[in-house]
Specification:
Belongs to the glycosyl hydrolase 14 family. InterPro entries: GH (IPR017853), Glyco_hydro_14 (IPR001554), Glyco_hydro_14_CS (IPR018238), Glyco_hydro_14B_pln (IPR001371). The chain is α/β, with parallel strands linked by helices. Helices cover 35% and strands 11% of the residues. An eight-stranded parallel β-barrel has the order 5-6-7-10-11-12-13-14, surrounded by four helices. A hairpin with a 5-residue loop joins strand 1 and strand 2. The protein is globular and about 65 Å long. The two termini are 28 Å apart.
């Protein structure tokens, strides 16, 4: 799938490939308030205790975890002090040995690998099928379960309504089937390109952008009237503005065409899951922090409800409430790169918590839930009997403030006194849909070291969202937000995939690795990846990482190609 919002924002920070699972000496030295997530073993002694929600978090860890105290409607905001003392000389001179959990005989978590963004050309032709087949054979040799691929709306229905070209995808799927791999397929109704890491540009279908030239209100719009062509506004979900069809009818027709075209792959269970794109980057959120409008991390973003269709919806809601003067967006919510305390709306005690603020945020977030509800209902009709999923973005910056401003502008009504993810989880449950969450490998400590002003807490957000999903018994899958090739990064993913001592044995339903590339196929990186796959599958591994001479020869060939 296209680079996610989390991948993009973290490309703006200094790259750190090590997402460690232990509290390292250097991190203790450089930060007064280190943070270790659920289930980590480190030099700090973590005594695990049971919460009423059924999760286990450390009682001595200097972390906030997700800790939403539902009974009290409160959220813990402060980090407790570090209890262990560390001598500075020891910190500098004594490297810590990496401590790893033994995942032998733990639950089997399937591993998928995302294919390159440009694996199918704009003419819907498979690019370099021989090279791709060679790489897929190597993935198969280490027991990867399958691959994920975007089926781009802008490629398949590019030139005319209801004229679909699936040829390149058919050739790709045949190769995957011949190698006895599985497929996760993304219905990508968004634009690809414009984010860091996007190496191709795939716009929306040409006939759609032509409509947008005469009616730009089909796109999300900010307060200053700037349009965002990444995807269509949810305001036209039920408006017949697309050559006589509504947006949801267009999405349904596309999905139905796909189901008919690839019937044999469904019947043979080659296609294991359909992920339905619901917004920018395929994520269920508003495009509240677009790089094209000069947003920079950790800006709070802006509300995206100023196209005429969404404003009509807001006016209708205000009239129904009996306050027509509330038919407006906030006029004191700052701009893309504001901080919460700079605004009258998001600051502590700000207008977000007023009667008007609550009305607006309820409406804004409900539009998001309603969009997901409509599209997933039609997806279930198109793909009856096949698992469907929705991708949710991890908006973790400003999580440790009362308003959670960045989440609010993205459509997640999740201030400190409200669980904004439970309604989304309930909607997914209604349709039997899985949740794919994007930032499970990120560490709060890294955020505090690199951007302390952002008051971010990715680990706290992760466990709140996972709890919301697991509370309603829906599957939760994940993917890495940044490229990962090292053991510490893989260990972090493993710890989140299979929480330590969870009383109900909850774990991720699948993990999708970002992404197939020449760097991954380099011999050392691929050996680490193979070890990671085994552990996710619950197999025993050797610390020596022994590999067969045959596989070493295959990988050396890939290295030679990369060097050339």
């Amino acid at each position: 799938m296209a680079i996610s919002s989390i991948q993009f924002l973290h490309s703006l920070r200094p790259f750190n490939a090590s997402f460690t699972t232990t509290t390292t000496a250097s991190s203790l030295k450089n930060s007064r308030t280190p943070r270790v997530s659920l289930g980590f073993r480190s030099s700090v002694d973590f005594n695990l205790c049971s919460l009423s929600s059924g999760f286990f978090v450390s009682s001595s860890a200097p972390s906030r975890a997700w800790a939403l105290a539902r009974d009290k409607g409160e959220r813990t905001e402060d980090y407790p002090p570090v209890t262990d003392s560390v001598d500075d000389d020891q910190v500098v001179s004594t490297p810590q040995k990496l401590q790893e959990r033994d995942f032998t005989d733990t639950p089997y978590v399937p591993i998928y690998v995302m294919l390159p963004l440009g694996v199918v050309s704009m003419n819907c032709e498979l690019v370099d099928p021989e090279g791709l087949m060679d790489q897929l054979r190597i993935l198969k040799s280490v027991n990867v379960d399958g691959v994920m691929v975007d089926c781009w709306w802008g490629i398949v229905e590019a030139n005319a309504p209801q004229v679909y070209n699936w040829s390149g995808y058919r050739r790709l799927f045949q190769i995957v089937r011949d190698l006895k791999l599985k497929l996760q397929v993304v219905m990508s109704f968004h634009e690809c390109g414009g984010n860091v890491g996007d190496d191709v540009h795939i716009p929306l279908p040409h006939w759609v952008t032509e409509i947008g030239q005469s009616n730009p209100d089909i796109y999300f719009t900010d307060r200053d009237g700037r349009r965002n062509s990444d995807c269509l506004s949810w305001g036209i979900d039920k408006e017949r503005v697309l050559k006589g069809r509504t947006a949801v009818e267009v999405y349904f027709d596309y999905m139905r065409s796909f189901r008919v075209e690839f019937d044999e792959f469904f019947e043979d269970k080659i296609i294991s899951e359909i992920e339905v794109g619901l917004g920018p980057c395929g994520e269920l959120r508003y495009p509240s922090y677009p790089a094209k409008h000069d947003w920079k991390y950790p800006g709070i973003g802006e509300f995206q409800c100023y196209d005429k269709y969404l404003m009509k919806s807001l006016t209708k809601a205000a009239e129904a409430r009996g306050h027509l003067n509330w038919a407006r967006g906030p006029d004191n919510a700052g701009s893309y790169n504001s901080t919460p305390h700079e605004t009258g709306f998001f600051c502590d005690g700000g207008e977000y918590d007023s009667y008007y603020g609550k009305f607006f945020l309820n409406w804004y977030s409900q539009v998001l839930v309603d969009h997901g509800d409509r599209v997933l209902a039609l997806a279930n009709l198109a793909f009856e009997g096949t698992c469907i999923a929705s991708k949710l973005s991890g908006i973790h910056w400003w999580y440790k403030t009362a308003s959670h401003a960045a989440e609010l502008t993205a459509g997640f009504y999740n201030p400190a006194n409200r669980d904004g993810y439970a309604p989304i989880a309930a909607m997914l449950k209604k349709h039997g849909a899985a949740l794919n969450f994007t930032c499970v490998e990120l560490r709060t400590l890294d955020q505090h070291e690199d951007f302390p002003e952002a008051l971010a807490d990715p680990e706290g957000l992760v466990w709140q969202v996972l709890n919301a999903a697991w509370d309603v018994c829906i599957p939760v899958a994940s993917e890495n937000a940044l490229p990962c090739y090292d053991r510490e990064g893989y260990n972090k993913i493993l710890e989140n995939a299979k929480p330590l001592n969870d009383p109900d044995g909850r774990h991720l339903s699948a993990f999708t690795y970002l992404r197939l590339s020449p760097v991954l196929m380099e011999s050392h990186n691929f050996m680490e990846f193979e070890r990671f796959v085994k552990r996710m599958h619950g197999e025993a591994v050797s610390d020596l990482q022994a590999n067969s001479n045959k596989k070493q020869t295959e990988l050396q060939g890939i290295d030679d190609q990369v060097a050339a």
